[in-house]
Amino acid sequence: MTAKSYRNIKLVIVIILSIIFSQSLIYQNFFLSIGVLIIGSLVIASMGKRVKEVIQDERDFEVGGRAALQAIQIYSWIGVIVMFILKSQAVTNPKYDPIATTIAFSVCILMLLYGFIFRIRSKGKLFDGYVIFSLVVLLFFIIMGFLGILKF
User: Fold this and answer.
1) What is the Cα–Cα distance from 2 to 117, expressed in whole angstroms?
2) Which of 102, 99, 109 is nearest to 135 (CA)?
3) How far is the C-alpha of 118 from the C-alpha of 103, rounded, in Å?
4) Which helix (H) or strand (E) holds 152?
5) What is the DSSP string of 54-82?
6) Of 5, 42, 90, 152, whose CB is crowded by the most CB atoms within 10 A?
7) Maximum pairwise Cα distance, the chain
8) pLDDT at 77
9) Per-10-residue mean pLDDT, the chain, length 152
10) What is the pTM for the complete model shown?
11) CA distances, 135 to each of 23, 112, 113, 118, 130 (Å)
12) Pairwise CA distance, residues 57 & 76, whole Å
């Protein structure tokens, strides 16, 4: 398969999957939307392995890594600012407090997840002491986030 045909087929698959995904959300069939997301990702990934040409090179990965880091930083700053604004307004409207807490936990979890994945990819081994510690802290924040959401 050529890179051009891969891009065209991927575009058609994404369009079809997005239609199915949006309709399943409209009809509140969340299991179907998750299934469509997983199946679509697997199909696109398996098709990418069949391409005989170079799809990406090292520069793409470098630019993608910098873009991902900047996106995480921007999301974190915006999330923290919005969280503080919502926390300050929670006195007048208590419904803002769980929203602010959810944003705070999502920022923490995103940054911890980024650090965890970065450590695994840079060291190449899963059972490093720092990686295990990062995983424990990440799981702690995820559990506390769910418990905090369920409390409200």
Assistant:
1) 31
2) 109
3) 22
4) none
5) ----HHHHHHHHHHHHHHHHHHHHHHHHH
6) 90
7) 60
8) 93
9) 81 88 84 87 84 70 84 92 92 90 86 79 69 77 71 56
10) 0.59
11) 35, 8, 8, 12, 9
12) 29
